[in-house]
Amino acid sequence: MIDPDHVAQEGEEFRFRDGRGQEMAVSWHPPELPAPRGRPHGSAGICFTHEGKVVLVTWPGVSWEFPAGRPEGDEDWRATLDREVMEEACAVVEDATLLGFIKGVCVKGPQEGRVLVRSLWRAEVSLKPWEPRHETTGRMVVRPDEALEMVGFGRDYRPIYQRWFRDALAAQEGA
Questions:
Q1: How far is Cα 2 from Cα 54, in angstroms, rounded to an integer?
Q2: Is 1 a residue whose pLDDT tops 60?
Q3: Bridge pairing between strands 68-69 and 91-108
Q4: Residue 9 has what DSSP assignment?
Q5: Model confidence band, residue 99 (pLDDT cutoffs 50, 70, 90)
Q6: Given this model, what pLDDT does residue 148 score?
Q7: More confident of the two residues 134 and 57
Q8: Please, is 164 exposed, middle or buried when counting C-beta atoms within 10 Å of its C-beta (0-12, 13-18, 19+)?
């Protein structure tokens, strides 16, 4: 059982079974480039408005999440973040700080050996009018102290999300 207050340390591995019965190992990695080895699996951002609130998005059947998505074409980590935040949250990324990477390895199951890497960011955004055109169906802006408890990341990812959120708050305070 994972301690609900535990914050991931660099390289610390967390193992669990995913929804498809595969055994996974996920770990937090520092923001230095190059990224950990693996297939680029996109970017995700904890997005702060100028008022210091956090932007969350949702789509049918899914809990609230931070804007995120996979790369298109030859997009780099930052370009993926910028596009996904605009598509999902109708917001423009004005500034972003790479906080780290999450690396997921399938250690047992049909995709054994598959390694996916996602970049994790803190972004300052300007909200545009809410006009959903892509997969998301809702946007909400909440206080930072509400955000992490509203996000549906699952208990297995909690230490990773707590690290990401803690680092995002620290970067926000320094911004």
A1: 26
A2: no
A3: unpaired
A4: P
A5: very high
A6: 87
A7: 57
A8: buried
- CA geometry: angle at 61 spanning 72 and 136, to 5°? 40
Regarding predicted confidence, which is higher, 25 or 158? 25
Length of the chain: 175
Is pLDDT at 2 greater than 70 in this prediction?
A: no
What are the DSSP E strand ranges found in the chain? 13-17, 23-29, 39-48, 54-58, 68-69, 91-108, 115-127, 138-142
Token pair of 8 as six digits: 């991931």
Amino acid at 26: V
* Cβ-contact 45, 85 below 8 angstroms: yes
* CB-based contact 139:130 (threshold 8 Å): yes
pTM of the model: 0.92
Residue-wise over 68-92: b if at least 16 C-beta within 10 A, else e? Answer: bbebeeebebeebbbbbbbbbbbbe
**Residue 3, pLDDT score:** 64
